[in-house]
Amino acid sequence: MGGKVWLVGAGPGDPGLFTLRGKEVLLQADVVVYDALVGPGILAMIPDSAERIFAGKRSGNHFMRQDETNRVLLEQAQEGKKVVRLKGGDPFLFGRGGEELELLTGNGIPFEIVPGVPSAFAVPAYAGIPVTHRDFASSVHVVTGHKRADQSYDIDFAALVRTNGTLVFLMGIAAMHEICSGLLDAGMDPDMPAAVLEKGTTAKQGKILATVGTLEAECARRPVQTPAIIVVGKVCELSEPFSWYEKRPLAGVRVVVTRPKELMSSLSDLLRQEGAEVVELPSIALKPVTDRSLLHESIHRLEQKEYDWVVFTSPSGVRIFLEELFRVSDIRALSGAKIASIGPGSEKVLNARGLKSDFIPSVYDGKTLGEELAKQLNGGERILIPRAAIGNPELTEELKNVPGVTVSDIATYDTVYGSSGAPDVLAVLEDGDVDFAVFTSASTVKGFAESLKGLDFANVRAVCIGKQTRAAADRLGMQTWMAEKATLPNLVDCVKQAAREVYPE
């Protein structure tokens, strides 16, 4: 089968603004050629199986020339691969997507365009600036602030001023003097509101509000963080009253979530609802064991009513066990046994299959589960624990203290450590652009450490779900906080508390 290229707009940075079609295409890619402006949260979505090629470029700093990027796309497609060209914003809005298509079409390479949310509109929106408003501006004009070396601007400033609309300059920070001077020389009122919007739609976004006449001086007082855009127009007056992004509890906070990929969304969604920017870095993967003979034997024994209890120690343990149960039997196999689960997460997965727990401990950890379940036993019970191959021994030790109890501790899944997305996240962590890493198990701490071996863990602020998780983070020298209870809502509350301590008002 021949290769194909997709030009995909990644949007302005916030993973929540990445389109459904863009994510669908990205997850099927063999090769991803990406820019520096693609947010780390979106880079973390690149599948482990895909080759990553960095073709980053920012003003004055080109890692790969445009003609080289064009050639890479062509060569990879000619090898029969599915190639995603992942570009910040929209590929056709000053994204040079048209230039990349010229070589592809000339060589008969099939392609698709997946538009992205343009930064020209999204970034002002996140800053409380509507680019059009009936009382202020009936038009908006997007202008590139970039120019070729040793060439003058090919911009009709007088025409822009006559529109009386909102002007958005992309890639214009290095040319701020020429832009402001050009507008003023063309007759724009020096008191016309203007703004520089930095790192828009991300946790590190900021804004400088001024006028066309004072914008340069205001920006000279502190370095402008790039990427940044310039907005000129009366609508900039609305930024303060229409401000919304900064008012959420976790606004300005970037969080790395380390859960397995299949469990990511629930925690990530809770954090995003509170205003956090979430970077998903699955630090472990859970794989069903290769040799399932003992697991199948335990299911057969369940069918024969040879177990009194089935104990689940994680949502993944429930999911993987039930998937295997339905492959070789059906739900009736559980009819003769009571069910214990370690907490609400496991209970939720059980409920989705029409099952309920007969017992949940007061504290959601293995030791408490063992201690409190042991008090429910009379002696002589037969207990099945389908769980990770590296399960904590405290649970079984507590249960075996009950006279006559037999425990079948069956390896149901293996834990695989590490993440292919780690290099991109490592760069963000080293730059100090991540505020907290959230861990839901000691295994995720270990997987995080395995993925990011070059990192100084003393600089990592770790929010942990329980004692064992916190102990694993403490051993690495991380700064740690622990949730009051081992639930996702409590974990999010802990992130908010940690943020208040680190960034007091």
- What characterizes the major β-sheet? 5 strands, parallel
Number of strands: 22
> What percent of residues are in strands?
15-25%
Could you say which overall geometry the principal axes of the C-alpha atoms support?
elongated
User: What share of residues is helical?
Assistant: 25-40%
Structural class: alpha/beta
Low-confidence stretches: none
Gyration radius, rounded: 27 Å
Would you mind describing this structure in some detail?
The chain has 505 residues and is α/β, with parallel strands linked by helices. It has helices spanning 20-26, 40-43, 66-78, 97-106, 119-126, 157-163, 176-185, 215-220, 264-273, 293-303, 315-328, 344-352, 366-374, 393-400, 422-430, 442-451, 467-475, 488-502, and strands at residues 4-9, 31-34, 51-54, 57-58, 61-62, 82-87, 111-114, 140-144, 166-170, 193-198, 206-211, 228-232, 254-257, 277-280, 284-288, 309-312, 338-341, 382-388, 406-417, 436-439, 461-464, 479-482. Helix 3 (66-78) packs across helix 4. The chain is elongated, with a radius of gyration of 27 Å. 45% of the residues are buried.
